[in-house]
From TrEMBL:
Record protein name field: Trehalose 6-phosphate phosphatase
Biological role: Removes the phosphate from trehalose 6-phosphate to produce free trehalose.
Gene3D superfamilies in the cross-refs: HAD superfamily/HAD-like, Trehalose-6-phosphate phosphatase related protein, domain 2
Pathways per UniProt: Glycan biosynthesis; trehalose biosynthesis
UniProt entry keywords in alphabetical sequence: Hydrolase, Magnesium, Metal-binding
GO molecular-function term, one example from the UniProt record: metal ion binding
Organism: Micromonospora yangpuensis
Length: 285
């Protein structure tokens, strides 16, 4: 994949998920011009951790990169929708995007959502699993070695080993064993294993539903769970040649290569994404 200073959208191999061919190569400027022609019918989707915000050793301390909030605030009124699609709970996202009008929040891979500042709606099929997830979090805190971080999110449990990389194999093995024992599902990520209810909900499903009536969409992500979102845009483009979809990877040293190979464009960091969105806001304005 080309990653030059001009921000070229380069041809990439077919996705590993969905069996859809990549989009026709465009420059970033050409893609934004095509978006400007249909902005009112275009959706911008963003992952949070590693995309809008740098990853931190302490997940509770993460903040959006400079310029991100201001750029989204300018872009949102021009678009059909702006949506944050994250493994974080909606309440966490709301705390970080409070005051931004017209931004939809999808938490826990879509198990929760809130539209334009409205109430949080939880996927009904996931609610019976709340006690199980709480018990799993307690067990993880008791059994995992010091250095592993247990993040309880009500409907999921994330097991982190960023501050102790040597614990990765043991933590991941423990998490997968517990998931199998309890009938739960796992989602691997950047030095984290997420354990969640056996409910059919993921980023790809969220994006696939939202873009059914859209004329275009951009998705910005950094981790393997975002490849399903890319696949949803590919599927929409395959069904409608007039649909303009752009898949953007945010570089990182852990899963960056796999995600970049599934994207049209790679941006160097969340900070660089802030600059990129600021430039786009000026272009669309």
């Amino acid at each position: 994949m080309s990653r030059d200073s001009r921000g070229t959208l380069s041809r990439v191999p077919p996705l590993n998920v969905g069996n859809h061919q990549p989009l026709t190569p465009l420059s970033a400027d050409q893609a934004w011009r095509a978006t400007a022609d249909r902005a009112a019918d275009t959706v911008l989707f963003f992952d949070f951790d590693g995309t809008l915000a740098p990853v931190d050793d302490d997940p509770t301390a993460v903040q959006p990169a400079p310029k991100v909030l201001a750029a989204i605030e300018v872009l949102a009124p021009a678009m059909q929708r702006v949506a944050i699609v994250s493994a974080r709970p909606v309440d966490f996202l709301r705390d970080h995007f409070d005051g931004l009008d017209g931004v939809d929040l999808y938490g826990l891979y879509g198990l929760e959502h809130s539209h334009s500042g409205g109430e949080t709606v939880t996927e009904p099929a996931a609610l019976p699993w709340v006690p199980t997830m709480a018990e799993l979090a307690d067990l993880a805190r008791a059994e995992l070695p010091a250095g592993a971080l247990v993040e309880f999110k009500r409907l999921s449990v994330a097991l982190h080993w960023r501050t102790a990389p040597e614990l990765g194999p043991a933590v991941e093995r423990w998490g997968r064993e517990q998931a199998e024992r309890l009938g739960l599902r796992v989602q691997a990520g950047r030095m984290v294993l997420e354990i969640k209810p056996p409910v059919d909900r993921d980023k790809g499903m969220v994006i696939g539903e939202v873009v059914r009536t859209a004329a275009g969409a951009w998705y910005f992500g950094d981790d393997v769970s975002d490849i399903k979102a890319f696949a949803a845009l590919r599927a929409r483009a395959a069904a409608d040649p007039d649909f303009v979809g752009v898949c953007v990877a945010v570089a990182n040293p852990e899963t960056g290569q796999e995600v970049a190979e599934a994207a049209d464009l790679t941006i160097d960091s969340p900070a660089a994404l802030g600059d990129f969105l600021t430039a786009a806001a000026h272009q669309l304005g």
